[in-house]
Amino acid sequence: xxxxxxxxxxxxxxxxxxxxxxxYAPIHTYQVCRVMEQNQNNWLHxxxxxxxxxxxxxxxxxxxxxxxxxxxxxxGTCKETFNMLMKESRYIKIDTIAADESFTELDLGDRVMKxxxxxxxxxxxxxxxxxxxxxxxxxxxxxxxxxxxxxxCPFLVKSLxxxxxxxxxxxxxxxxxxxxxxxxxxxxxxxxxxxxxSTEGEWLVPIGxxxxxxxxxxxxxxCKVCKMGFYRSLLDSLACSKCPPHSVARQTGATSxxxxxxxxxxxxxxxxxxxxxxxxxxxxxxSNVNETSVFLEWSVPMETGGRKDVRYNILCRRVLPDGRGxxxxxxxxxxxxxxxxxxxxxxxxADLQSHTNYSFLLEAVNGVSELAKDHAKQYVSLNVxxxxxxxxxxSVVRKGxxxxxxxxxxxxxxxxxxxxxxxxEIKYFEKEQDSSYTIIKSKETEMVVxxxxxxxxxxxxxxxxxxxxxxxxxxxxxxxxxxxxxATSERTQxxxxxxxxxLALVLLAVVAGFLLTxxxxxxxxxRCGYSKAKQDPEEEKMHFHNGHIKFPGVRTYIDPxxxxxxxxxxxxxxxxIDVSFISIERIIGAGEFGEVCSGPLRLPGKREIQVAIKxxxxxxxxxQRRDFLWEASIMGQFNHPNIIRLEGVVTKSKPVMIITEYxxxxxxxxxxxxxxxxxxxxxxxxxxxGIASGMRYLSDMGYVHRDLAARNILVNSNLVCKVSDFGLSxxxxxxxxxxxxxxxxxxxxxxxxxxxxxxRKFTSASDVWSYGIVMWxxxxxxxxxxWEMSNxxxxxxxxxxxxxxxxxxxxxxxxxxxxxxWQRERSNRPKFDEIVCLLDKLIRNPSSLKKxxxxxxxxxxxxxxxxxVEGDCSTRTQTVGEWLDSIKMGRYTELFMEGGYxxxxxxxxxxxxxxxxxGVNLAGHQKKIITNIQEMRVHMNSTNSTVNI
Length: 949
Ligand code: ACK
Hints:
CATH superfamily of the largest domain: Transferase(Phosphotransferase) domain 1
Number of strands: 51
Number of domains: 7
Oligomer: single chain
CATH architecture of the largest domain: Orthogonal Bundle
Distance between the termini: 99 Å
Bound molecules: 2',3'- cyclic AMP
Shape: elongated
């Protein structure tokens, strides 16, 4: 029971010794040194040590220990270690303690004290306190100090959060999570702040933080109130900000600023946005009347009120006759895209009454107009007078008597004829075959459509024409012809045969009469002007099969593939020439199969002519020979001044040759590049006319070229252009411009219509697209279409409605024609027939070529957007289904299809009534679809814009 309250046992073991240290401060040590005696077991217990909540404690011992070797004679029993134990409920050994350095006799003599320090940790502790004990088994020890301590994480303020003094966990490397407390006027940002207290008493891993609440800002680790004229609204902005323009903060600690008189703010305005006011009136309003529609356009107001959300509202009023005042326009007038909240500075107002005065008030509003009730509204007004209107669409078409090849139709006059109906047009085609259709006309409201196939479903649409033009087509009506008669009595059959013979005779007489009329020049065969109703060659062929009359004198091209023996096809269409009549003089180029040469051809009895000689190089396979001669089989069927003429073939001797007329100026693209800027516009149009004429001939023959490009046009000494290259280039292996498409075919992308690239739909209409590109090549003297753009970029740009810009100094009329050739919808492209007519007109009237493409539109390497049905690229949709999907109305796709609305063009003409009819019954859905249809119409009417590529 010593001064420290420690207990030593047995009594003659550990001994408490009071000493003084170097500074004469009293110190206690316990010593034991019974090294000479056997069986020592001397214990020293501490008194009870309180843990104060610590679960892990550290024990630091300082002691000296005698080196046994330095003891004379006592080595046998002497120890150099002792045990340290602890007790909560019973003693447990903590460790055996050895000295790092033990002392010797010598050290004692020199008064050197070799003090050892050892630290051990202890945990987890479960009780409020514990005892320590030191067990000596025969060593010579002086225990100088025992320090028992634990570690804690001290109170801390970090990121405006206070963390309390914290005792660590019991396990080594354990972290204790502590949630901090936000200091005055601060709040946790997103989540409460947290820190982690380690067993070493260190704060680690801070998470989250506090920030000053709105109206306060952080200065030197605490939150200070915002001064007057300043505000702080958001937790994540750091400092108080000055109030934005036209707003004030009259007190300290403001979380927002209030607007000055006459200025306003809406909830969605960000706090740092200035207070704003309503806009002034729109400016420079103009109107453009088209029959009973008016296009209104204006400029943005002088004063937008400081906001970007300016919108426009239209008030439409009809001027009553005899000065009886004004009357609101009513629900029948349509506004495209809508009447109020217009974001663009134009609107189309349709379905006005004809020959009527209207007054329009245009008002600009913005986000704060609603709040500014006492702000006087400012309008701009426009007065317009409408003209005559085209008739409204025929609403119902009925089926009458039906036979296997005819259907009788009847319909009612349109609801609003808007004038005297001059005639009706009936458009029809076999269902699913809408790439070709037939148009017939009738002055009555009924008609029997003949020449139909039995048991077939046909689609019919009718529209009316007045002096103001055509109205829109009715919606589509589907009717089916009767089936073949299965069991007919012999008498009926005989009757049918008799009637058929009579009809055939009558028809023959009519045809003969027609041919005679044509022959005498009484009936023009071709007329100028575009009309979508005309058919392309495929369609003409279809007409022929359906019993319609085809232009006389034009043969139909025969595919050499229809011949079992290709040699037979060659000799059917090409004359065999004896090689002795040809002399090869020069090589003029290289073809796919061998050299292209030139020289004179002297056929007996004919005058000598220059010819081009294509040769088939030696070592060819039978297949190559066939492919080479294929071109002759095709060319030999043509006879036209703008198609390269085949003189004959040499197949009986080697090398095999194809002999054609010689074209002194070679291919058109090189020729133009060589003569850049050298020709008059009329000369260029003359060349284009020639090419179009050749192409008209080919399309009349039912031949689709597929590789029409300036490089495949040859030019003679009189600048006559002739279409060439009819090689087996259907697969286009020989065209360096041809690239492989994803579908595997090889296609000259820059010259090819999108539908031909996408799904190999090659028609005369796709040749018309290529012709448009040739026009562009000619007018730009052989410039490469789309310059150095990659094929992929060209496809993408075309898909997104961009087109080549007008070439430098190109007459506007020609550029319009090119653009028409590049209509996405192939039935909207002009036919070669119409192109020739138009070019003839331009040549006859050269002043029509004076107006050049607006030079501001003609910036090199800019594509221009094509005004097309699909509208701009962001809202472009391809099918009705996709369009409906895009407005989340996809569920109606089937109903639209069943109702005959299978193209966006027809959808664009739908009214609410039509929607109800197809089965859209929910008012909200009707409204949504109608609003989008109106927007679609505006896109369809949208003007061209320019985009940088
Ligand atoms: O650009 P060019 O001079 O015109 O080079 C090519 C070359 O042969 C390989 O096709 C030229 N060529 C082809 N057919 C004829 C032809 N009938 N008259 C003159 N040159 C031709 C073409």
